[in-house]
Amino acid sequence: QAHLVESGGGLVQPGDSLRLSCAASGFVFRDTDMSWVRQAPGKEPEWLSLINPNGASTRYAGSVRGRFTTFRDNAKSTLYLQMNNLKPEDTAVYYCALGYSFRVPPRSYWGQGNQVTVSA
Length: 120
Description:
By secondary structure, this protein is mainly beta. It has strands at 3-7, 10-12, 18-25, 34-39, 46-51, 58-60, 68-73, 78-83, 92-98, 114-118. The radius of gyration is 13 Å and the shape is globular. The mean pLDDT is 96.
């Protein structure tokens, strides 16, 4: 079955950048829409982005549009999230997920998650 492993998170200061990676296996990555989701402490999961199979089409939540960019390398079966100008409110566990729509996919479609903490 599908397996997704996120990496690249950590502790950064406001204004810093991070790039998350998501290594995919167990399915035909190149044929699959992919998403990013995050969950902040005490909050419901938030859909962040959707990217189509060839990477030509992307969509973003308003909270991250203009700061975050998702892209993919199908030859490496890897999904990325470039996060710029990070803010304290971006603190959350970040998950890549099998694409679904402009909404949070079912939990079984997510990876294991990777913590991003933004604090001065």
